[in-house]
Amino acid sequence: MKQLTFNMAIRLICLAGVTILFFGCTDYFKNRKINEGFPPVSILKPEKIKINEVLKPGAIVLLEDFLIVQNEYNPKEDCFFVYTRDKIKFCYSFGSLGQSGTDYEYIAPRVIQNNSGNIFTVFDQSTRSIYYYDMMPDRVVFKKKERINDKDETRFPLQEISFVNDSILLFTTLFGDICSYNIAADSIIDRKHFVTGLKEELGANHPIDYEGFQFSNKGNRIVIGFMFINKVITGELDHHYYMRFNQEKITANVSDFDQDKYSNTVYYMFMLSSDKYIYAQYMGLPFKVFQPFPLNLDGRNFKTLMEVYDWEMNKKALIDFNLDVLRFTMDEKNTCLYTWNPLEDFDYLYKYPLWE
What we know:
four-stranded antiparallel sheet; 2 helices
């Protein structure tokens, strides 16, 4: 038998790898968990919008006239890239990573959603400061800086932050709480932690993100999707900004959880909401699919679906984007969704029609 050359061996290894990737991913999707009761799956095709400026996005924020992309942390690049909202035309970039204490420099910036008008806000996880900027077509103007005094959360990053109005914030903590916060009074108004029983059944050392969730709010209305529990719940803020949910005790079956975290099913990744509808980004696949090699020999995968509900939780649509996507930003004015592919170099924004 003819001896294999080095190049031939490499080719065979690569071919075997491609075969594993192909069949592994096929098996994942064949066993994907899908919630019943939705109409047949709608497959949407995107418009690809060429973007040349951003190396790799971390978030997208929409203002009245602008779309702003946060660049993933890179000390040699600007933090925020500003585009016109209607034409997606690049305007300018600004902000940098550092510790000089200037009004345009941050240690660990995170964007805040649901900004009003053309005011853009950045939360620095390290200093707990909120920076306010007035966005203009040719420049950005710093307006003011405020501080969140969340006391026992001070040493830990907040997970998601969103405005209810100019005075009230909603944010989630590393410990699985959702809080309403009064900026003017400089204090937490209300705090909710959802009881699942997992800690009692699995022990105090169970992964805290087994009870993790994502939220979205449209004004005073809130929707929450749990990451490892197949559950979406709704709630609202009363006129004192205390939170009330249709469920505060969440049933979680311990038998559904595996000791190996990566074998557990991921359900809801991110949430969006409009006046009429809830858009729940859904996976229904093992946590392993998000992981890189060698934890996942099949290769990372972010091909999520989108469940659409009305606010009474009637099931309206199930959407397949047929693309690896991390999260979406909703543009109600232009009836579209924006996203990006996290597994490729960032060359495009993907623009999908908004289900109505």
